Amino acid sequence: MRREAYGQTMSELPQERRVVTEIPGPISRELHARRLDAVPPGVGSVLPVYVTDAGGGVIVDVDGNSLIDFGSGIAVTSVGNANPKVAEAVAEQAARFTHTCFMVAPYESYVSVCEALNRLTPGDHEKRSILVNSGAEAVENAVKIARYVTGRDAIVAFDHGYHGRTLLTMTLTAKNMPYKHGFGPYAPEVYRMPMAYPFRWPSGPENCGPEAAAQAIDQISKQIGATNVAAVVIEPILGEGGFIEPAPGFLPAIAEFCKANGILFIADEVQTGFARTGDLFACEHEGIVPDLVTTAKGIAGGLPLAGVTGRAEIMDKVHPGGLGGTFGGNPLSCAAALAAIDVIESEKLTERARWIGETMLPRLGALAARDPRVGDVRGRGAMIAIELVKEDGITPNPELTAEIAGRCHANGLLVLTAGTYGNVLRFLPPLVIPEHLLLEGLDILDEAFAG
Ligand code: PLZ
After folding, report:
1. Is the pTM of the predicted complex or chain greater than 0.90?
2. Do 18 and 126 have their domain in common?
3. Residue 71 is part of a domain; what is its CATH number?
4. Whose CA is nearest to atom 9 of ligand 1?
5. If you measure from the C-alpha of residue 136 to the centroid of ligand 1, how many angstroms do you get, rounded to a whole number?
6. Interatomic CA distance for residues 12 and 199, integer angstroms
7. What sections of 121-184 are H helices per DSSP?
8. Claim to verify: residue 113 and residue 248 sit in the same structural domain
9. How many domains would you assign to the chain?
């Protein structure tokens, strides 16, 4: 039931783009009408094609369309959707037991996933991990642990940051619409600092890293007081904020400041983790060793799982029973994670991610060179984005972004948007996407700009 291509294990699904109806097609539209009577509009969908199958680099819908997947369900299905090894592991586990609750009667796979997290996350110090259900829950727990261990209240987050939709993580999230609007009051003791956003830094990208770090450190010191800060929470490449790579030097300066002041550095690697950026974790790029790391998304091949990994001396401090949850580290998710991690390691998906970046960046650079509406091309590995602007080269162009995304969708390429200003097209292909689909996707994108 599997086929090898480019060294990756692929599902049997034909790896082709096929557009046989308008998108969404008639059956999807029917299902959508049904959905509107059952699901409130507060839960959106980027492209309401209703899915029947997905694998390798494609998503197949109820109308028989096969779309090229440049989204991976928001950076989740890095090993490919329904990866055969993941599917097998989950089916086997489902036949044995589906749940006991790790806090009631434990099982080995939870321990094995934590061992893998301790081994793979940055730094060779002794670590411990806990498992929870979602990225937001991981960030919540990291903050709980940081406050407990430091005895301090304040948490520092950054402009353009995204950390989830629960009360605390929504508070940590920067963008009002759609994440926060009307959902307040927010959690106390969260402070927001400037982010080193090279493309939009007033004195130019070359000054961005040191200047932004100096501003953030000055504001933390003056407005909060370093000794009141439990932790900074930061994405090593900002995801929902628009795939912003903090300018070089910014993360190391913040990490150093944290270390000097007893502040815990929490790297939110929920979107960047597990080979997505061409390193196993994006922090590795500048040699950052965080005190706590949150992971989710790509960890378990599409099953819900998240983790908090941290220095043993930090993690071991919390009182017995202080951390947990009914479903955290569910056995199906753990089986999936062990299979996904095996695929990531044995199929060298970090290298594959780098190859995706090396393939995409020159193509997008050429697009930017001939089309001034593409203001910036950025990202690492298989986490790549373009920022779209108006004639002045800097004003965000969210209308064009929506238009281009719509043209891609109509032609069978699933792309996502992002960014504080809604003007970023982001690309997160599965790391196992076949080369011909990656290239075809880039052709469709070129056409969308030409048309
Ligand atoms: N931290 C860095 O990217 C989730 C959000 C999609 P959950 N990003 C996708 C949406 O609109 O809800 C994310 C992230 C980073 C935390 C999270 C939260 O992870 O698994 O969605 O809770």
Report:
1. yes
2. no
3. 3.90.1150.10
4. 74
5. 7
6. 42
7. 135-150, 167-172
8. yes
9. 2
